[in-house]
Amino acid sequence: MMDTEKARASAWFRELRDQIVAAFEALEDSHDTGPFSEMAPGRFEVTETKRASDDGSDAGGGLMSVMRGGRVFEKVGVNVSTVYGTLGEAAQKAMAARGVPGIKEDPSFWASGISLVAHMQNPHCPAVHMNTRMFWTPGAWWFGGGSDLNPCIEYAEDTGHFHATQKAHLDPHGTAHYPRLKDWADEYFYIPHRNRARGVGGIFMDDQNSGDWEADFALTQDIGRAFLPAFVPLVEKRRVQPCTDADKDTQLIHRGLYAEYNLVYDRGTKFGLATGHDANAVLMSLPPLAKWV
Question: What is the pLDDT of residue 225?
Fold first, then answer.
């Protein structure tokens, strides 16, 4: 049943959540010059989420932490959840199609993870997404996740820093990981109907099961540990830059791409809605404002 491993993974995702929430509120507190600095520093609103099985029995839940209208973050959500129960028919078919063994015979599951999306006030600050997760069924277990940068106004040095930080955290686990996960992110975070990438990439993996749970958990932890040092320096640098109405317009149009991707293609969004998780938590990733022209 891997009860010990499940507990360790769930505890890590909660610990990472606490670190990120504290770091983001510290960014709000320290923003005292430049655009939006006259606003009050934002704070996270924390809501406990609950999930029930069809028969009404407990099926897990988590914490939804959302900050709206901050002076650095226009909207940011950091969710953690640990859910379990029986997969519905649609989810069973999706798992079977991915080659998960024994899912028809025993469709019970357990899943835990952290999911983060940040939409920024200043258009020069890049939006960002990060999630890591562990999934278990009686016939299989695996880890997944990554992080990717979504600037509406691109700076090559910011992209370089984001990727270099992730590479530095992955290389101790084997130098093959970063190029493989970078290519995977480029493929995964692509919007076919727009014929373009969602952002400037990052790293992504799914179905990670090398047969060594400890090694895969350590890799997943370092994907999470890479996030703050990859992202926070970019925010600190760009949040003080002057921005125009045209810059804001560029940001709103770019957010439309993000919304389209998450509603049409994102596997986590589809799974969350299909398994009856709190819809507000699942759709937390959507921007507060967007524009289509």
Answer: 98
pLDDT at 273: 83
Instruction: Name the pTM for this structure.
Output: 0.95
163 is catalytic: no
Low-confidence ranges of the chain (pLDDT < 50): none
- Choose, from 129, 161, 177, 277, the residue flagged as catalytic: 129
User: What pLDDT score was predicted for residue 169?
Assistant: 98
What confidence tens digit (pLDDT) does each residue in 216-236 have? 999 999 999 999 999 999 999
How many helices (H) does the chain have, and how many strands (E)?
9, 9
